Protein 1
Amino acid sequence: MSYLACLNLDIRAAKELGMVDSYHWHKRTWDLFDSDSDSKRDFLHRLESTERNFKLWILGKRLPKCPDWCDSQSFFVKEIPNSFLTHKRYSFDLVANPTKAVLNKEGANNDKKRGKRVPLVKEDDLRNWLIRKGEARSLDSNHNPVSGGFRIIDSVPLEIRPMVESHFKKGSHSAYHGGVRFRGCLEVTDKERFAESYFSGIGGAKGFGFGLMLLAPIKLIN
């Protein structure tokens, strides 16, 4: 079984709780689960905000509960039926952290080594990044590309919002992630791989609220 939950919290209440950036929300998401200190993160979350409130989405295979800092009337959870991921096409809404690795200078053996990751900002680069995530999400143990199980449908416009910086502090360390919102339609090419992509998330910085894809099945008329 799997679940999708949604939590609404007034911005003023969030500030009183010290939930002022993505790192603090990252820690607070654990309050929705019964877990011990050794538990590994096995869920995705996504934070949206307006002038008045925050909306937190949670996706995972454990049943989330309403935390004590949220009104039960502002918390909703539904079970995702197994049939939900059997459709051929979906509209999607994804906030991801698209990055690329910058190569360092050549070493003694003229080998270029991967350096830090930097955010992608150009629209063509972002579009190609998402296409690659569907066609080859990662590498397997033999370094062969593993499909993400989907392709972007070209006949439907792909909306790509400008990158937004999400700054946070962890102790004395300050950093940020670049978030980009994609909205469009996709077609499933491999149901098993697509299900893995859905539950594991798209791109990096998943613990900080990126990678969760909201889906709605659709039928396209050719």
Protein 2
Amino acid sequence: MEVSNIGKTSCTLSWHPPSDDGGSRVTHYIIEKRDCSKSADAWVPYTDHCKETQISVQSLNENANYEFRVFACNVNGVSRPLTTSTSFTIKLPFGVPDAPGEPDVHEIGTNFVTLSWQKPISDGGGPIIGYWVERKEKGSEKWIKCNLTPLLGCMYNVPNLIEEKEYEFRYGKIFYFSEIN
């Protein structure tokens, strides 16, 4: 049996039909799961009527350790189980990336500031799909997203700032905002 496409709460199981069908065609398969962190004897039915030799198993617990077993069924009865050779952990195959570098101010206008930052040292094993820039006014506790969609690059013009106010940007320093003459 092969376990593939392991995700945050799911995986795919695939297997081959039995070489000996007992003289009658296999009509379906029964799949059971076991959360190895709970009890060694706790096999729980997942489905009792799978027609294919592959199934996407959903609604698993993230970071739980699982084993699976499959039974072939025909008019004569149920086979002995085919069990996964080892248990496996349900989790994403990558982690979160490191934080990007502190933002640098490149330009200040009457109502904007242009920031840039360095890419994170580690991407966590998965592609970085974008960046969020957040700001807050000095003395406020409320962070506000500046961009509506994730940024692909490492530079952003932060719009709609008010002259003579101080702002703080995530992972950055406090910058005093005033027009450069």
Protein 3
Amino acid sequence: MNFIDTHLHYWDRDRFHYGWLDATAPTSVLPQQLPARADRAGAIFVQADCDRAEGLEEARWAAGLPGVSAVIAFAPVEHGGGVISWLEALHTISAVRGVRRLLQDAPDELLLDAQTIVGLRRVGSEGFVFDACVRARQLPSLTRLAAAVPETTIVLDHLGKPPVAAGIQTEPGRAWMVALQDLAQLPNVHVKLSGLAAEADQDVPLDPQARPFLHHALETFGGNRCLIGSDWPVSTRDAAGYDSWISLVDELGASTDERARILADNAISTYALDLTVPGA
């Protein structure tokens, strides 16, 4: 069954500056390095957190890369109404379907700031989706933020970065379960089944660690609001890791119809992709 990878990153350090990449990271990660899959019908580039001033140019660059079906670009949503000029510039890049302002290390005050709420309302009114990348402890604040912007579709990246290494039945795991259930009560929020390898114990096989968290997310959000993503190359660095993650998420669907929604249909509807996916 064909799938659309809703979350991958490319970068080029000769072109852009990335404060989060250390000296051991490759100079560039480009489409020709992505593990080949005949059943991958599309891929969504998510901004790779280059310097803010380079965000628009990064979106233009990504839109021209081979195999990129859509772009989630950077936008400074905390600027409130002032973000409109940035969004207008993004409208000139036809591949842009959404925006992301990385929130995982931001203080809760930023998520709940009145200007951020205004900025996210602008994102929705301009027809863009907002990708929210937060840590598990920030989920209650994200729930309050999402409730304040019902007109804006929000996609939670990486299940909110749950405590995969600790386990779902630990105190942090149970807290994440409750917080995710609260967030899922909001119909404007969707979730990407992605990125758990980065939160896992690297000395233990990923599958048994990740599976309980994936099942809870699917049970909580339902098959209509879950999307598959690899988080390549951050979470799945090689072909074996990429293939095993796609297979793991594919197995979650309880029926052919639910599998098709998770693997492709939800991505097409959520991000308004101009794609026809045979066999999805």
